[in-house]
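Hi all, long-time lurker, first post. I run a small reading group and we've been trying to get comfortable going from sequence to structure in the token notation. Rather than ask abstract questions, I figured I'd post a concrete chain and ask someone more experienced to write out its structure so we can walk through it together at our next meeting. Sequence below, copied exactly:
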Amino acid sequence: MISLNKSNRPAAARDTIVVLDDVAQLRGLDLVRNDRQYLTEQLKNDGQLASCDISGRLVLIHLTAKGDRHARLEKARKAGNEMALRLNGAKRIEAQLISLQKDTAVTLALAEGVSLGSYAFCKYKTDEKGAPTLAKLNVIAKEVSAQDLEELADIGEASWLSRDLVNEPLSYLNAVQLASEFKNMSRNAGFKLRVLNKEQIEAQGMGGLIAVNKGSRDAPTFSILEWKPKNATNKQPVLLVGKGVVYDTGGLSLKPTPNSMDQMKCDMAGAAAVAGAMYLVAKRELPLHVIALIPATDNRPGGNAYVPGDVIRMHSGLTVEVLNTDAEGRLILADALSYGEQFKPELAITVATLTGAAMRAIGTYGSVVMGTAPETEFRKLDDAANTVFERVARLPFWEEYDEEIKSDVADIKNLGSDLGGAQTAGKFLARFTTHPFIHLDIAGTAFLSKRDSYRTKGGTGVGVRMLFEFLKQRSAKA
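-- Answer (accepted) --
Happy to help. Here is the structure in token form:
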């Protein structure tokens, strides 16, 4: 993790990142004329990044963009990422960020890009060649407080933790170990944690989670994370539900390996996002009651695996006809939503790498969202998503999609037609909660095959920053 520290004065010989909103502000830097002119010419051609090597000292400049504010902040993050790549490529350990402009959000966005862009998953590498080295960023900016930097550091830490979880292979991170990771996070952040074992899950009648787990040698877990401060501004909790399929073979409806099963360690990215958000909520001590539920298992074709044609009785009492064992995520999430009914949440949000249909609809540029919640809730989520540039696209949730999951032999079936797959999955989940409901499908954004700026290759940690921003705004306006 990168340490972010408030500093009062720059160090003359240190590698320097600079953010400004006018080229003339370069006069405020201790540079000789030729170096200043060299940087000025670069900024005229491309305001994103100008660089200069002054006797081994790197000076990196970002000129803030004009126009849309969300795009402006995102360009600052991307500039921060480019700076991080150069500093890490030069094997720098420490740098300083000097702000010559007054927009707090821009300065923080640049620092955030540096932090998120410096991530790499190196746990299993014996050779650390090429691993990021940058560990400390000193920030000299009047508009930024020490508290701002503390929060940003926590956001970076939670994002790194989420990425680590997604990048871990099943050989380490089975369902039991995932719950153990949540235990470590609860100790560090302060939220409460209760973990149900297989016997307790069976006693609760969670038929969906038990069915998906039947083909595995490893036990399932059901984690309950809760943050309930005395000064909570909401009478009823916000409920977060994250899909925790630690590895998905597709079960007996086996996936192909290339570009599919080989990436399925990421199928618990919803759980990682929800856990990361809870980590932030607790660490930042938001005055908001939040409960997170994470059902976890792998989905394998071994042993007494469930099969297409099986009928499952869920926690809610509804029966489900299984038509495809690769539509398993909705089964475990449905049990969690039903379990969450006892808390009478003011809003329930599911987060999951649920359908290829969502990714085919909008690609990797954003996540799909739908549900039954009031329009105001979707606007709040959209605002939070745009603020952190984890954009969402809302899909229609028409009544006709309900017809797609009607079963001839059970109450509902776990698969619709070949069309509208993201919506029929959402409609399936909606049957298991009576409260305002939002479903977030992160199938396209949770795991990348190649780096996209500060969204590094592999687990992206998507959802952590969005959910925290959404909950932070909610606690402030309650």
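A couple of things your group might point at:
The first helix runs from residue 33 to 45.
The radius of gyration is 23 Å.
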